[in-house]
Amino acid sequence: MSSFNEIFKNPKSKEMGLRLKKIINTHFNTIEEQIYGGAKVKLALYSRDGKNNVLCGIQESCAASCLLYVHHIDSIDHERLKFSGKGKHAKRLKFNDVKEINEEDVHWLLTKVDENAPF
Description:
This is YdhG-like domain-containing protein. By secondary structure, this protein is of the alpha+beta class. Helices cover about 25% and strands about 25% of the residues. The protein has helices at about 10-25, 105-115, and strands at about 30-35, 40-45, 55-60, 65-70, 90-95. A five-stranded antiparallel β-sheet has the order 1-2-3-4-5, with helices on one face. Strand 2 (about 40-45) and strand 3 form a beta hairpin. Helix 1 crosses helix 2.
């Protein structure tokens, strides 16, 4: 698998993924995209200064939703953004519609990631 578009089966999820990708790419000056996955799990990871220095990731979820994973942050205090699940190495936000993706909010979150990343 080598293409961002290949990680999505659902057009609604793909639309959300493309929106998140655009925000990520405009937020970070230098970022590398790596596509990972097999038959069940497919995701795009974004890193800086090497593929092991992951900052965030995008993954299609069930029921036409999309997940944004963020590394280097354990909790947030934000009125609209809420983490879902209990991630050990990354926290995630689940989006069910592209209208839920507020660009300003995602930039705020990515700024927190950038501030906490050791690289």
